[in-house]
Design goal:
There is one protein chain. The chain folds into 5 domains: 11-122, no CATH class; 202-355, Jelly Rolls, CATH 2.60.120; 377-450, no CATH class; 523-738, no CATH class; 742-792. The chain has 800 residues and is an alpha+beta fold. 40% of the residues lie in helices and 12% in strands. The protein is built from 27 helices and 18 strands. Residues 395-454 form the DUF1595 domain.
Length: 800
């Protein structure tokens, strides 16, 4: 946004010419304050006008009515660039520092005035619906069931990384069709468990049962050795599948596995994967169940997993650093593994039990039918509901259920249409249970179930209960929250803080960390790329799952212990199991349980930034890019928004031949002024992390592939200058510099919590509120739990 020195443009003349040409919107002439117009005319239009505008920002076509979100975004960007002193460029502008400061102030006041007025009339948050995860959890809590439902609904769009943002949520015909399907599946399961007979399955599978039927056949099942079902370390697909564990019906099963290792490597046990699937070539995907580190002494592990009908477990050595046996033809014969002296796992027994993770059948029966009795069915058929006054019972039960489904009290008038629909169904000859199901189905297809019920202005008590519950549990409020809402106590900050502590300390509290991190930190996308096996042979699914466990445990510890946000950047501890510790090169960690581990400076670890899960999701599986990591760290951790690049600027692609380093290519890229401004913020965190490869390991030199060969390339240079000119030599010094702005880190966490919890991104007009919320936690050194409590008790959270 610059002009040639000394050149001035008369705004009135320019505006008149542009208006006659049909270029300048009327809104800019009518609504932009005169001082803003004058500054733009004198210091910006020379470079930012027409089709050849710098950075593709044509101010002559910018609408000043602020009715379009993309124009508001551009005005905010103009404010931020001028406020930061980045524009107009010093070398080509006559604007004084005082003029720039005054322009930024007036533009800020104009934007805030517009957004505050809009928020007052419409609310910060548009009407929003339950996400598919929230829908699954809500139906689980409402009906007491535990079957997977989220994957039956369409994928969610993500705004600022969050699926909860109302702005981009859609409800298409397809979405409504899928919603109806999910409601039917959920109600079928609930009524079947309420009226049917209890499902049970309990078997102890000994080694002989787990092994292949015919010892002479070459198969992929374990072989029987010394009364153990043995599977050797191998690359054979589906080797270690256990047909004896095949699920007779879809459901949750608990597996208690007792096993030991054979031919343990020196210094550690045999790490094995536990996965599930059909284990046939037509269905190759095997979802994760867990991992175990088998040792020479037998141990017992317990896993709970959803197992679709016909699916089975596969248990096998999965550590890619283990020596592997060679078996021809994709099958393994009895005795082939032992002479090769490769590691193996020997299973003594597996106890398999059908379980339920939600309510008991009796509790579901009470949720659906209250005190009505059931007449048992004959020969395994569902029972029938006994009612002496069907119409009255229907009205009573539907109103009772609506209170839970709509997550607030309802009147008889509000539920009358649903009751009438159910009574009409009964008049057509349907039995009481199917009639009641019709009433419940209509409630679950109501906008009052699917959508959040919020009106502009301060939230009512039940809207507060819902907003709090869906922030921390991604599900409907429980009885205690609704009772507090009924008493009108949820406006009390002390009550809200107490509820935050109760909810985070509950068994469901740990899930908040996983839900929030899955979107905020992109951990839900960790499977999106797979590191190149040739470049990163030590990486495997066990390492990846341990990385996730490390980050989840670390964040959970931060919330539980109210650790400062500074621990996101650096710390002297992390959470490891023996496999991940060995992968990182950290000694002294034993066992397959994640536990807190102290770090030494030479470990090159500390803080969220250096954890494998973060480093993996910010790389593409083959190489790293300071741009990708720099943008991610800036936006997700440091709270520095990075605008999209101008359309006329090509992307920087790594030179896979190694002729040029990424540093050399970026130096040329930054020579363009429109690129240099953003890269001053992007590049420092990107280069600071260059010592970590695409699989999360420390490196001193780059690796390069040449055909089938991998060789060491140039030495890694992690030094750079911060946007404000401060220099760092490596990631340690970078962390030290970042930690000087603690409130900035806290402000970013508040921003993400507000976006995730309210369903709206933080607007320009919200910035002062966010700053004030972060400042409230200063006395706890910006503790994570303190920040959550400050958000929940803030006006921005308690207002639509």
């Amino acid at each position: 946004m610059a002009m040639q020195p000394g050149r001035r443009i008369d705004w009135t003349t320019t505006a008149l010419v542009l208006t006659l040409l049909g270029v300048l919107p009327t809104g800019l002439r009518a609504e932009a304050p005169d001082q803003i117009k004058s500054f733009i005319a004198n210091h910006c239009l020379d470079c930012h006008s027409g089709s050849e505008a710098e950075a593709n920002l044509d101010l002559t076509s910018l609408d000043a009515s602020l009715n379009h979100a993309h124009d508001v975004t551009k005005w905010v960007r103009i404010h931020d660039r001028v406020h930061a002193g980045e524009m107009p460029p010093e070398e080509s502008s006559t604007a004084s520092a005082e003029e720039m400061k005054l322009f930024a102030k007036r533009l800020s006041q104009w934007l805030q005035s517009h957004q505050h007025a809009k928020q007052k009339s419409e609310g910060r948050v548009r009407g929003r619906r339950l996400t598919r995860l929230q829908m699954e959890r809500t139906l689980h809590d409402l009906l007491g069931i535990d079957i997977p439902l989220a994957d039956k609904l369409p994928e969610e769009p993500r705004t600022d990384s969050f699926s909860t943002v109302a702005e981009d949520q859609t409800i298409s015909h397809f979405h409504l069709d899928r919603h109806l399907h999910v409601v039917d599946v959920a109600l079928d399961e609930a009524f079947q468990r309420a009226l049917g007979q209890a499902d049970s399955y309990d078997r102890t599978l000994d080694a002989k049962t787990l092994c292949r039927r015919n010892p002479r056949r070459r198969t992929r099942e374990p072989e029987l050795i010394d009364d153990r079902a043995v599977t050797w370390s191998s690359g054979v697909t589906f080797y270690g599948r256990l047909p004896a564990t095949t699920a007779p019906e879809s459901g949750w099963y608990r597996f208690v596995i007792r096993a030991n290792a054979l031919n343990c490597p020196e210094g550690h046990g045999v790490w094995c994967t536990v996965r599930r699937g059909l284990c046939v070539s037509s269905a190759p995907l095997l979802p994760w169940v867990g991992a175990i580190e088998a040792t020479e002494d037998p141990k017992t592990w317990t896993f709970e997993t959803w197992l679709p009908k016909g699916h089975m477990l596969e248990i096998r050595p999965g550590d890619t650093t283990l020596k592997r046996g060679r078996f021809a033809g994709g099958q393994v014969g009895t005795g082939e593994g032992a002479p090769q002296n490769v590691p193996g796992v020997a299973i003594e027994s597996i106890h398999m039990t059908r379980i339920h993770q939600g309510m008991t059948d009796e509790q579901i029966r009470h949720r659906l039918l209250d005190d009505l009795t059931i007449k048992p069915g004959k020969k395994g058929k569902p029972g029938t509901v006994v009612s002496t006054n069907p119409d009255k019972d229907l009205a009573r039960l539907i109103k009772r259920f609506a209170h839970w489904a709509f997550r607030r009290p309802v009147t008889e008038e509000e539920v009358a249409p649903y009751v009438a629909m159910a009574i009409d169904s009964m008049s057509e000859g349907n039995d009481f249970a199917s009639t009641l199901r019709t009433g419940y189905r209509s409630l679950l297809c109501s906008p009052r179930f699917l959508l959040f019920q919020e009106e502009p202005g301060p939230l009512d008590q039940y809207a507060i209960a819902n907003r709090l519950s869906y922030l921390l549990w991604s599900s409907m409020p429980d009885r205690e929250l609704l009772q507090l809402a009924e008493k009108g106590e949820l406006s009390d900050p002390n009550v809200l803080r107490a509820q935050v502590r109760r909810m985070l300390d509950s068994p469901r509290g740990k899930q908040f960390v996983r839900d929030f991190a899955a979107e905020w930190l992109d951990l839900g996308l960790i499977d999106f790329t797979q590191p190149d096996r040739r470049l990163f042979p030590r990486f495997d699914p066990i390492v990846q799952q341990s990385m996730l466990a490390e980050t989840h445990a670390y964040l959970d510890d931060m919330v539980r212990e109210n650790k400062s946000v500074t621990w996101l950047i650096d710390s002297d501890y992390t959470f490891l199991d023996s496999r991940l510790a060995r992968y990182y090169g950290i000694d002294g960690v034993e066992g397959d349980e994640i536990r807190k581990v102290s770090l030494e400076p030479g470990d090159h670890r500390g803080g969220l930034l250096t954890q494998g899960a973060i480093l993996k999701v910010t790389a593409n599986g083959t190489n790293t890019s300071p741009i990708i990591r720099g943008i991610w760290v800036s936006e997700r951790i440091l709270g520095v928004p990075i605008p999209p690049p101008p359309e006329n600027v090509p992307a920087v692609e790594p030179d896979i031949r190694g002729a040029k380093t990424i540093r050399e290519m970026l130096a040329k890229h930054r020579s363009q002024e429109s690129c240099a401004v953003c890269h001053r913020s992007i590049d420092p965190p990107g280069f600071a992390l260059e010592n970590y490869d695409a699989a999360g390991l420390w490196r001193d030199q780059y690796l390069q592939k040449s055909g089938r060969r991998v060789r060491r390339g140039a030495k890694v240079d992690a030094s750079y200058d911060m946007a404000d000119g401060r220099h760092f030599e490596d990631v340690d010094q970078f962390q030290t510099l970042v930690l000087e702005d603690r409130q900035g880190l806290a402000r970013n966490v508040v921003d993400k919590l507000i976006t995730f919890g309210t369903g709206a991104e933080v607007a320009f007009a919200d910035r002062d509120d966010v700053e004030a919320i972060a400042a409230q936690a200063a006395s706890s050194d910006y503790g994570m739990r303190s920040l959550i409590e400050a958000v929940v008790t803030s006006p921005i959270f308690l207002t639509k």
